[in-house]
């Protein structure tokens, strides 16, 4: 079930009426082989809403700071897909230019492994993928599976022969010691 990602945003007019913003399809960005749709984001801190006072989207940095949010759709290609030709270091630099803040969390010596200071709510809507934790434990994620990722070290592996689509809401958090 492949689908086009569209974005519908509501707002409040200065007079308090609820209104729709312009509806549009989102253009995906491709970074490191991923197809990323940056749907919406809010500034760090406490989001605000109100008549005529709703801020524009804040999609970057990719991972929000404490209290910030990001709403993204990610299509993971199969791991068996041919990697793009070219210099891997340039691919990482290009991904960082296009999706600021994305690549800095990944461990160079353990491909795919990363840790973020966020609580991530993820829903698999198409395909399948494996979520691996730092001790090698894995869970098979299929459509309808909801994942609550709470700042742990992890990696995503698409071992199937087709793309997997995940929808995420990232909420920036403060990491405590211990």
Automatic annotation (TrEMBL):
Residue ranges annotated for the Cupin type-2 domain, each copy included: 112-169
Highest taxon above the source species: Bacteria
InterPro entries to which the protein is assigned, alphabetical: Cupin_2, OryJ/VirC-like, RmlC-like_jellyroll, RmlC_Cupin_sf
Protein name as annotated: Cupin type-2 domain-containing protein
Species: Pseudonocardia sediminis
């Amino acid at each position: 079930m492949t689908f086009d990602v569209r974005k519908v945003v509501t707002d409040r007019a200065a007079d308090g009426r609820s209104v729709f913003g312009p509806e549009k399809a989102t253009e995906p960005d491709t970074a490191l082989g991923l197809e990323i749709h940056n749907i919406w984001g809010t500034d760090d801190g406490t989001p605000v809403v109100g008549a005529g006072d709703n801020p524009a989207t804040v999609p970057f940095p990719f991972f929000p700071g404490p209290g910030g949010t990001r709403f993204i759709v990610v299509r993971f290609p199969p791991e068996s897909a041919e990697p793009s030709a070219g210099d891997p270091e340039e691919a990482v630099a290009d991904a960082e230019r296009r999706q600021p803040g994305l690549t800095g969390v990944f461990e160079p010596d353990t491909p795919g492994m990363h840790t973020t200071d966020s609580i991530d709510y993820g829903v698999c809507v198409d395909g399948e993928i494996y979520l691996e934790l730092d001790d090698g434990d894995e869970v098979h994620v299929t459509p309808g599976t909801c994942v609550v990722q709470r700042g742990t070290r992890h990696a995503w592996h698409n071992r199937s022969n087709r793309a997997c689509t995940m929808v995420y809401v990232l909420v920036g958090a403060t990491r405590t010691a211990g």
